[in-house]
Write a structure and sequence with these properties.
- It is a single chain.
- This protein is α/β, with parallel strands linked by helices.
- The protein has 2 domains: 78 residues, Alpha-Beta Plaits (2-Layer Sandwich); 191 residues, Formyl transferase, N-terminal domain (Rossmann fold, 3-Layer(aba) Sandwich).
- The chain contains 8 helices and 13 strands.
């Protein structure tokens, strides 16, 4: 069983892999899986390793303290994680419940290893769904500033690790996004940018689209332009009406978002400027 997951990124240079492997070996950690990528365009190196102890397991906090010197030597952005940990996730939603329901079921069934201490919404419509899973449902106050202040309170009170916008249909302020950089995952239909605004599925139908999709991404101040984690598409033909297009799109949104959350939980997603490196 994997005891440690190490992720890192830094300037690409000689000796990184050797130094990391030696660090793990010296501490009786056997490498079970190793993935790496050198991005020539940015000059950055990315790595994800899974390792298990040979013999007695050591506290991960001690490993972090010891790894800090190596991280400083190579000027790394790094994390040492225990794969047994369950991230605490705040789910946010408005009125459409397909993504929320999918995430809650996956968490309930054990296929998605997260804890959901609360669901926040700007509408009361989906409180019944939260009750089904015995999760507190927080209806946010009116006004963007008040809503974001309440969300930040929830994040602190519940010790939230990251936030998932499961079709939360509000634009977040730049200050809010900056405070949670790299910790908010969003989903939107893949009809953007051609069909923005109201009734995108009707617009897609009237435009005769042949491909629809969904995009899961980190949230940045630039609306729907954050680093992409996952995208899914499906072909449609002339027989598909707006309701069918919407149904297919909802399925794509649910799956793309759950994959993005799963990969984030497993420490497979590393930021690379405006892009991501996603280790399979």
């Amino acid at each position: 069983m994997t005891d440690v997951v190490l992720t890192l990124s830094c300037e690409d240079r000689l000796g990184i892999v050797q130094a990391v492997a030696a660090f793990l070996a010296e501490r009786q950690l056997n490498i079970e899986e190793s993935q790496q990528f050198g991005d020539r365009s940015s000059g950055r190196f990315f790595m994800r390793m899974q390792a298990s102890f040979v013999g007695e397991k050591r506290p991960i906090d001690g490993l972090r303290t010891e790894f800090a010197a190596l991280g400083q030597r190579f000027e790394m952005t790094w994390a040492l994680s225990d794969p047994a940990d369950r991230p605490r996730v705040l789910l946010m939603v408005s009125k459409l419940g397909h993504c929320l329901n999918d995430l809650l079921y996956r968490q309930y069934s054990g296929t998605l290893r997260i804890d959901v201490p609360a669901i926040a919404s700007n509408h009361p419509d989906l409180e019944h769904l939260a009750r089904t899973y015995h999760i507190p449902y927080v209806v946010l106050p009116a006004g963007k500033a008040n809503q974001e202040a309440r969300v930040l309170e929830l994040i602190e009170e519940e010790q939230i690790d990251f936030v998932v916008l499961a079709r939360y249909m509000q634009i977040l302020s730049g200050d809010f996004v900056d405070r949670l950089f790299g910790r908010i995952i969003n989903i939107h239909h893949g009809l953007l940018p051609s069909f923005k605004g109201a009734a995108p599925y009707r617009q897609a139908f009237e435009g005769g689209v042949k491909v629809i999709g969904a995009t899961a991404h980190f949230v940045t101040e630039q609306i729907d332009e954050g680093p992409i984690i996952e995208q899914m598409v499906s072909r449609v033909d002339h027989t598909a009406d707006p309701e069918q297009i919407a149904s297919i799109s909802r399925d794509l949104e649910s799956t793309a978002l759950s994959r993005a959350v799963q990969w984030h939980v497993e420490h497979r997603v590393l930021l690379n400027g405006r892009k991501t490196v996603v280790f399979s």
